[in-house]
Amino acid sequence: MNRGRIKSIERSQGYGFIESEEGLKIFFHQRWLRKVQFKDLKEGDEVVFAINQGPRGPRAFRLSLASDCEEAVKVHPGDKLFKD
Questions:
Q1: Nearest by Cα to 7 from 48, 53, 43
Q2: Whose CB among 40, 59, 65, 75 lies 3.0–4.6 Å from 54's, allowing a Cys bridge?
């Protein structure tokens, strides 16, 4: 499980970027959210997430607000996460 803050959101495109606690810039897409609606996210929100290496760099998935249940970001063996 990773923590960070929403750095920027592109509402019209359905994606945004997180700055991790380590200072990494991590991409996320609205379809990879858990227990939160894209429209409810705002810059500065603290989030928890898992990380996968995408074709253009790290990307966050199973993203939830840190205040929500952190169980949402657990990854189970055999999970099919992305259609690349």
A1: 43
A2: 59
Domain boundaries, the chain: 2-73
Task: Decide: helix, strand or coil at residue 31.
Answer: helix
User: Does the pLDDT of residue 78 top 80, yes or no?
Assistant: no
What homologous superfamily is domain 2-73 in, according to CATH? Nucleic acid-binding proteins (2.40.50.140)
Ramachandran category for residue 35: left, alpha or beta (phi over 0 → left; psi -120 to 50 → alpha)? left
**Cα end-to-end distance, the chain, whole Å:** 23
Burial of 11 (0-12, 13-18, 19+ CB in 10 A): exposed
What number of other Cβ atoms are within 10 A of residue 44's Cβ?
A: 8
Q: How confident is the model at residue 25 (pLDDT cuts 50, 70, 90)?
A: very high
